[in-house]
Structure to design on (139 residues):
């Protein structure tokens, strides 16, 4: 049992549903699909494992389950195919899924959290590619 209440009311099953639907759309997306396929081959087992890991990330972030171990900042920064402009596409697609699959209050709360995390990941990607001594571009 967690000592902290969830950030907002949602079930682990709802989180799993959103993550599964989101990645189904990622695979079909003309911008994001190729980026993900550079790291994740189009094998069902690989994608299922990835989705389980990302669902654990969200359950940790929302439900405080402590079921995720990993470093998303490091992973995104190491992926050369990931560009700062991909985060806007990612968030737009994620917001579509949230609005279709959840109640408006849940969708808004999760979207706010995702956008906050997305800004941090984007900034990390920008910083990981910055030329030493150059003025940072935080856009």
């Amino acid at each position: 049992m967690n000592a902290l209440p969830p950030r907002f009311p949602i079930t682990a099953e709802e989180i799993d549903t959103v993550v599964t639907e989101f990645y189904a759309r990622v695979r079909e997306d003309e911008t994001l699909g190729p980026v993900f396929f550079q790291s994740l081959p189009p094998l069902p087992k690989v994608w299922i494992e990835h989705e389980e890991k990302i669902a654990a990330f969200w359950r940790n972030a929302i439900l405080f389950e402590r079921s995720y171990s990993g470093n998303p900042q490091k992973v995104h920064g190491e992926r050369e195919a990931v560009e700062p402009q991909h985060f806007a596409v990612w968030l737009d697609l994620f917001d579509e899924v949230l609005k279709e699959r959840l109640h408006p209050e849940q969708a808004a709360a999760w979207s706010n959290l995702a956008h906050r995390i997305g800004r941090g990941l984007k900034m990390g990607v920008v910083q990981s590619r910055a030329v030493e001594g150059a003025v940072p571009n935080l856009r």
Summary: The chain has a mean pLDDT of 92. The chain is about 65% helix and 0% strand. The domain at 12-128 is CATH 1.10.490.10 (Globin-like). Helices lie at 12-28, 32-37, 44-63, 72-78, 86-101, 104-128.
